[in-house]
Specification:
alpha+beta; 5 helices; HK97 gp10 family phage protein; HK97-gp10_tail
């Protein structure tokens, strides 16, 4: 994704308060806050994800070029939007990813294909809810600092 602009007022005070914590405690508080922001994004993506006519778990028969019939299981995009903690280069960096676990066709919906126009539900949800994501992270980080006595 390209640029990200949001109102970050109050984060300098939170950063100063986090400096008084140990590195492990500050990282843990940051991880919890980052996860809260990711969960807001995941919920908004679920709300905007397209919903096709097939039911979750429906079997679809498809014929390959050689005439072989293959049975595939259909997965709805909105049911498989997940959050995972990802590895980072340094120990003091916090990263989470919002991704589609099953439903490989989410990339075709998001970016389009030779047969279909793009329907960017991931990007749209992110662009429309940047401030809500930052606000959730700020609120949870504030709560984590209070919990840790800072």
């Amino acid at each position: 994704m390209s640029g990200f602009s949001a109102n970050l007022s109050g984060f300098r005070q939170l950063e100063a308060r986090m400096a008084s914590l140990s590195k492990a405690e500050a990282t843990k508080a940051g991880q919890i806050a980052n996860r809260a922001g990711a969960s807001v994004l995941a919920k908004k993506i679920r709300d905007t994800a397209p919903d096709g006519p097939l039911a979750e778990g429906a079997s679809v028969n498809r014929v390959r070029k050689g005439g072989q019939v293959v049975t595939e299981t259909h997965h709805k995009i909105k049911n498989w939007i997940k959050i995972k903690k990802t590895k980072s280069d340094s120990t003091d960096k916090v990263q989470n990813s919002v991704y589609v676990a099953k439903g490989y066709h989410a990339a075709f919906v998001e970016f389009g294909s030779i047969h279909n126009a793009p329907n960017p539900f991931f990007r749209t949800a992110f662009e429309q809810n940047k401030q809500a994501i930052v606000d959730a992270m700020k609120r949870v980080l504030e709560r984590q600092l209070i919990k840790r006595g800072v």
